[in-house]
Amino acid sequence: MKIGIGSDHGGFELKEYIKKYFKDNGIQYIDYGTNSSDSVDYPDYGRKVADGVVSGEIDKGIVICGTGIGISIACNKVKGIRAALCGDTYSARMSVEHNDANILALGGRVLGKDLAIEIVATWLNAQFKGGRHGRRIEKISDIEA
Ligand code: RB5
Asked: Domain 2-144: which topology?
């Protein structure tokens, strides 16, 4: 499994911290930027990660801005993306089990680093449950179409 990760300046520090977690745990990833704390526009980085998921270059994505709100809204404009903004491990697990989220959004200025890592680990280990949840995902796709 290959993970894509991207952020704006508000999420840059947390992105680097999560990359260290990936390296320490042998998780393959692509870093879509940004590469410094200089001010950039979060839609550009949300779009890069979302396009990576849709094209199949990556299996799942993690996006980070200051709150996680703007970058999750941007990702959810891309057809086929279900981006979930999570601030706790329960929501992270449910976003996969029930919503088949293919992007996790985090708030770099909201979350403590250790909590963020727990959220990431929970999200990566969760499995979509299908069944009635699959029917609901299909209804979301119908809205999108
Ligand atoms: C940038 O200052 C900030 O607006 C951005 O990181 C994000 O929080 C937007 O939703």
From this structure: Ribose 5-phosphate Isomerase B; Chain: A, (3.40.1400)
Q: Which of 39, 71, 72, 106 to mutate to test the pocket of ligand 1 (most atoms within 8 A of CB)?
A: 71
CA–CA dist 21, 38 (Å, integer) = 23
pLDDT in tens, the chain (145 residues): 999 999 999 999 999 999 999 999 999 999 999 999 999 999 999 999 999 999 999 999 999 999 999 999 999 999 999 999 999 999 999 999 999 999 999 999 999 999 999 999 999 999 999 999 999 999 999 999 9
Q: Are 69 and 32 in contact (CB under 8 A)?
A: no
Q: Is 66 in the pocket of ligand 1 (CB under 6 A)?
A: yes
Whole-number Å distance, alpha carbon 31 to ligand 1 midpoint, is 19
DSSP class of residue 19 equals H
Identify the three-state secondary structure at position 30. strand
pTM of the model: 0.98
